[in-house]
Amino acid sequence: MNRPLATYIALLLLVYIWLSWGSDDGPRHSPDERAAYERQWWASFRSLDYAANSTYTQLPPSVRSAVDGLMHAQPAPSVRSSDGDPLAGFFYGTWNAEHFGASDTLLPFADEQDGLARPANGSAGRLTLELASADSSVAGTRLLHGNARLLARGFSASLGLRGIYWGASNTAVLYGVHQMHAEAFIGLVRAVPRNESFAQAKRAYAKLLDGRLSAYDMPADVVRGCEYQMYVRFSSAELALPAEGASGLRRPSGLLAQTVMYSPECRVAVASPLGRPLSGISAARYQERAGHYLRLVFVAMVAEILLLIGQMRHTQTHAAMNKISPYGLAMQTVLGCYIFIAHVSGSMTPTVDMQLAFTGATFVAFTLLVMFALHYMMSVWRVQQPSEPDEQVSGQRQLWMTYLRFYGALAVGVVVIHMYTETMHPLAGLMMALLLVASYSYWVPQIWRNAQRGTSRGLRKDYLFGTTLLNLIFPLYVFACPESLSFNTPSMFVWALVVYSMAQVAVLLLQDLLGPRFFVPASMLPEVYNYHPLLPPDSDEEAAAEGNADGSADSARDAESRGSEDSTNSDEPRNSRGRECAICIQNVDVSASVASALFGRPSYMVTPCHHVYHTECLTRWMEMKLECPVCRAPLPPV
């Protein structure tokens, strides 16, 4: 990589880091202002009264009826867990939205601001809920915290959650905000149903926040949008389905959560469909799955790096590198970057902590793989560049265009992955399918290069099979595994992608067996240069190369006259049909050219620049350099 390009990439990385850090432009408050706010907050919190301040009693009738069905139903057995935290886990499912009047949000433009606004009336989407609990000072309760992520077509929102759980009824009340602030705890207490539960929540959070309120921002310091009261009823998945038997249903292990959310400011209800609760998995089991997957990714990346190193050793000579397509290597590098982006984008893990773990674990593996692949690609590219100065300038332009395509492909991939994981855009699924097909076409440039140049056997078999199978691990896990970390529904499309990848491998193997052009009409591709032309009687290398390079008849006659003059002036008798090989300085016998061509490999080779060499000499030379030993003209590969 040249210095200007390295400087440009380093500058882009610095800009990205600077933008990632961002800046804190929020309002600043003096210690006196903060102390005054905390005194006012505690006065408001202590004066909370169920009869005067409850927002539960102000719910729309249909929403309150649904909440009553959750909170006051027959108690389900308490959820149990072996890790000490019965509610630590991840829940995922669907939701539907319903409006109950005009929005009274705090932001006048919130209806136009994605995530801060309410979802469209009648919209449906995906909900991911992460919860953890802690001990409470009030018996029979636990304090909850976590995050919720709502995703629908044209809508995406992330909420920080605080709440309280009652073990006797197996229910919980939470309050969700886009950015956590001190007023959220007042909103939580006001959302609790029933006077007794209201008092319990008030005592529990009064104890928790005593001396800790300063850790939370003032409402004026955060951007506020729709804030949600969330009502949840938990149950064990084993209780929701019958046991195995005549019905054939399997009893899954895990958790279930039926949810109802309502925003008083935005007047919108978001609820999981009746009879279709959120499916959950305990945090311990989820982390166990994540650990297994990270180990799998690391082993796969190490194996792919070892295969790549073996392929690099297999193609150390110039002739071998000329058989490799640098565009195929570039596409493999882009695919590795796509997989890394998918791991760190949040599509694989619903939590910030897990995203950090995935980022750190996958960064090292994918960075090493991309570095080796880029190094190999640049080595192949340099070998295949022409030696003429004018053509070198054109090669530099081609390199810059390759870099532009590389980073352009990365930008397109980032946009498509974001659309697929963050927006539920109607075209996101189609665009993701096209991106996968394009990304897994990395053997197509190699197939085309083999056919165009008439070469084959450039790839080791273990590298060909191993790279293909290892690159299929990620899509198979995400789109075919029913218990993947991404919670995706299995899709049959991934099996079509597997067939497509293996078809490319089959074509490369057939090119090795049947010839690189077995499937392409010869008229569609340029001719491959023939280093073993049949030399007619009384001809020499100039006349022999005439058939390959379309030399003129005058050149042949000039060569004959020069040969006659040399033989006349020579004191030694001239070897019949002999020419001197510039590599071994021995005569080349071309007298038996017809018989050699019919019954074996000819002992001579004629270059496009009309020079004759021994076959073994020139073959060994071309393994090191693809240029004529005499005139340095570029030579096509054998």
Automatic annotation (TrEMBL):
Classify the main location. Answer: membrane
Map out region (Disordered) in residue numbers: 540-576
Residue stretches spanning the membrane: 293-312, 324-344, 356-378, 399-420, 426-443, 463-480, 492-510
Localization per Swiss-Prot or TrEMBL? Endomembrane system
The record's EC number reads: 2.3.2.27
> Catalytic activity annotated for this protein?
S-ubiquitinyl-[E2 ubiquitin-conjugating enzyme]-L-cysteine + [acceptor protein]-L-lysine = [E2 ubiquitin-conjugating enzyme]-L-cysteine + N(6)-ubiquitinyl-[acceptor protein]-L-lysine
Keywords from the UniProt entry:
Membrane, Metal-binding, Signal, Transferase, Transmembrane, Transmembrane helix, Ubl conjugation pathway, Zinc, Zinc-finger
Q: In which pathway does it act?
A: Protein modification; protein ubiquitination
Q: Which domain of life is it from?
A: Eukaryota
Its record classes its membrane topology as: Multi-pass membrane protein
Q: Where is the composition biased (Low complexity)?
A: 545-554
GO cellular component, alphabetical, reads:
Dsc E3 ubiquitin ligase complex; endomembrane system
Pfam families, per database record: DUF2921 (PF11145), zf-RING_2 (PF13639)
Q: Please give the biological process terms from Gene Ontology that the record holds.
A: proteasome-mediated ubiquitin-dependent protein catabolic process
* Bias-annotated ranges (Basic and acidic residues): 555-576
Q: Where is the signal peptide?
A: 1-22
Q: Which named protein is this?
A: RING-type E3 ubiquitin transferase
- The scientific name of the source species is Coemansia erecta
